[in-house]
Design goal:
Blueprint (H helix, E strand, L loop, with lengths): L2 E2 L17 H13 L6 H8 L5 E2 H7 L5 H13 L3 E6 L5 E6 L1 H4 L1 H15 L5 H5 L7
Antiparallel strand pairs: 1-3, 2-4, 3-4
Amino acid sequence: MSRTHEEVSPAPRGKYEEPTTPEAAADAVERALSVLDGRWKLVILFRLFGGRVLRFSELERAIPGISQKMLGQQLRQLEHDGMLVRTVYPEVPPRVDYRLTDWGQSLCPVLDRLLRWAAARGDVPDVAAAASPETSDG
């Protein structure tokens, strides 16, 4: 038996209406981006993309430099925004799993497209090149 927090909304609550002015469009984009605002939220999302289910301790180990307090805060905010589901299992010791909602998972192709857009301009370093030292004959 498991339970999740009742306030979690796995899907968007509103419907899209085309902004009527540039200011309205900018405001809508800022509100959408605010869901991702936070030093660790994107790292957490990328760790959970692809249907991964991770425990708190697994996320903590996978994200160097994050404190337990900060991880907990970021997870709660993502849960509140409907991006992930927190499942608590009634065991001793307690086990808590985190997974993305369909709504959270739907962000993956959007972020992938953003990475491709930035790479086309040259703003995203080539990960393979950055990982291997340059070789020279001189």
